[in-house]
From TrEMBL:
GO biological process, any: phosphorelay signal transduction system
Protein name: Response regulator
Residues carrying 4-aspartylphosphate: D66
UniProt cross-references to InterPro entries, sorted A to Z: CheY-like_superfamily, Sig_transdc_resp-reg_receiver
Keywords: Phosphoprotein
Organism name: Rhizobium sophoriradicis
Response regulatory domain sequence ranges: 18-128
The organism's taxonomic lineage, starting at the top: Bacteria, Pseudomonadati, Pseudomonadota, Alphaproteobacteria, Hyphomicrobiales
PROSITE patterns found in the cross-reference section: RESPONSE_REGULATORY (PS50110)
Length: 146
């Protein structure tokens, strides 16, 4: 019975997480959003550049951030700001993971695109557990920053 209570708490806590998607390719952003909503979670918003992302940041808990956005390669600096200024758990999703291979202060890690929906689900569960101070297994596809 205690296990069921913990699982229910974990599920309820997961459902409260709001995910910001920072991606300049609209179809990729929509696909990520559909995956997040399919998990029963809320999308805090879609942003294609730094300005939009910072406007949406106060309503987000988790952010998936591309490195190259509509306003240039602003993703790494944006990810640092989202993590440090807003306490958001940031994971970079990029076709160029080597651009953030040395890590970005405050960000959790990086995943190479394309990212399958099952990996997005694993990432969200991992980040939600991490935010709650719980133990979680790092998804195999993610490189964690030190």
């Amino acid at each position: 019975m205690a296990t069921n209570v913990v699982r229910r708490w974990q599920r309820d806590d997961l459902m409260k997480q709001r995910v910001l998607i920072v991606e300049d390719e609209f179809l990729i952003a929509l696909d990520l959003g559909a995956t997040v909503e399919g998990m029963g979670m809320q999308v805090a918003g879609l942003a294609n550049d730094r300005e939009q992302a910072l406007r949406l940041a106060p309503s987000a808990d988790i952010a998936f951030v591309d490195v190259n956005l509509a306003d240039g390669p602003t993703g790494p600096e944006l990810g640092r700001r989202l993590a440090e200024e807003y306490g958001i758990a940031v994971v970079f999703m990029t076709g160029n993971p080597e651009t953030v291979a040395d890590g970005v202060k405050g960000a959790v890690g990086v995943v190479q695109k394309p990212v399958m929906p099952s990996v997005v689900e694993q990432l969200v569960k991992y980040l939600a557990a991490r935010r709650a101070g719980m133990f979680a297994v790092v998804p195999a596809q993610m490189t964690v920053f030190a």
